[in-house]
């Protein structure tokens, strides 16, 4: 397997001279802005000099990383490998997953596996391979602090100044000016109200490193005994966490807690999956609000609070096998909610309510894992003054055009594009990989259509 090296921030920083103006500057460098970087790189490779655009991307991580905390060794992708960073936009691109496989010498082996769904660790490695190839466009360890609109003498917003920490001197701030910015900062872990993370209370986003820490401490005076673990949630991450913890702690009781009667299978049938087609984005965008809501309601089972059937059957088989053997380590506390968590330092007291009767039981636990999903990050703290220019609908969500460009409240030539956080306008696929390649092409086309023409 190909393994990416660390970030190249100190070796290849993005220019920040006052006379350097970027046509587009990306904030965040996960799969979405990585796909955009590739689209730009391919455009510049074939365009005449006057048609090329200057682009750069700022990423606060030290190197490329995507959901590292859930890269479980046997977990597979839930999306076809053909929905990679490029294929849906440009099937001939040499940035495709198949080209990655060919370069790694595994193309024939993958074909013999007869699957559309690679291992998650392999797809992450593919992303890192692609990110390294466009590393000249990225500065890592560059935390963005603010975005400030810049006006001309007529009061028109012409540019955005993006302020970020200097990776070589974190106390110093760098300023880069751009005609457009593209925000793709991903999602942030969501916890129930009042929940507080600690050494014993985690979110699934930190599952693997936390388990590794416990394994490393085993046998030392820092060892934490793990006798009972709770996992709250009913989606794919919850079920994967239950399975992984059950395997990782062979002496512990692992309890899944959820308000449903049982895990719900994900609807990945061919007709339902068409909700993630590029054409479906057009239909959703132009549909009346009531139709948008009905589509969300009808098709939430394709993505939210659902689990792959194969994993459901595996967990049930494990439970049944343990019941036969008389040692039940895997338990499902269904139709239940966690009402209180009392962290007593050495142990958690978890109050679980059985919803049909209201009966509550306090159970001791060593670990509690919240598999309660993610939510879009708020734009205000990131964008600063620029966020005040965004037009909002219903006082909450921003108004976004079909080309993923945010509508601004004032005269503006500069553009603000969003990748993610646009489910209200672009549908269920806006936070998923399904339309990533196509969306990158749409943003690039929008930037090119609005680019200043040479005199």
Automatic annotation (TrEMBL):
InterPro entries: FAD/NAD-bd_sf, Lys/Orn_oxygenase. Its cofactor is FAD. Keywords: FAD, Flavoprotein, Monooxygenase, NADP, Oxidoreductase. Its EC number is 1.14.13.59. The keyword Flavoprotein applies. Pfam families: Lys_Orn_oxgnase. It comes from the Bacteria. It catalyses: L-lysine + NADPH + O2 = N(6)-hydroxy-L-lysine + NADP(+) + H2O. Pathway: Siderophore biosynthesis. The keyword Flavoprotein applies. Belongs to the lysine N(6)-hydroxylase/L-ornithine N(5)-oxygenase family. This is L-lysine N6-monooxygenase MbtG.
